[in-house]
Amino acid sequence: MVPKWNVPKRNTVCLCQRFNNRYHFATLYNTYHRIAIYSAYRFQTGGGGGREKYWYIEPQLVDRSWNKDMEVEEDLAINHMGVYFGQSQALNEDYINTTYDRGHLNPNGHHTGLRAGGRHPFQNNWIIKNNNPRVNIPDYIWNAYCCLDKKGWPIRSGGAIANNTDQTSVKSCTLSELKTLLKQYTKSKVLVLFRNKCGA
User: Fold this and answer.
1) Sequence-distant (≥ 6) Cβ neighbours of residue 59 within 8 angstroms
2) Which family does it belong to (predicted)?
């Protein structure tokens, strides 16, 4: 079931992101900054194959009554001619002729476990298109993981945080340390990143 849009914070929506009728991400998306504030998923060992070349958009961010599966923009346009999809989300065209990378939340080759990743918006740093701010360039990027054994019990966890520049170094940390760091960069409450003693 897709969560309702009436989340407490303005300009944010909770999404259960689905592809090929299978859920992949639980995401808190900021429709003003047009970035995912965080996205969590359960990952399995991948078969490789490299990075996905297509850019998928979220129909739920255009019209809640549309198909709930993520779709390639060109495919979505076939059934919705003349509709602009970028009012509340970033589009592939926003990144063309810029030095910025779209990024990806679910890279191939992971082991079984849980993962969460997020971005901290920066108020005055944007990708500009046609003199309009289109996509916020995050100030910080963070990542957290929790590896599980075959019975589903946590066996290893950790996190990392970095300034969003090509000159920065990544700071590895425990989940407890990551939570403390996240509290420094946001006015929102930082609750439990994972349940079931993943921080142990």
Assistant:
1) 66, 67, 68, 69, 70, 71, 76
2) Belongs to the DNA/RNA non-specific endonuclease family.
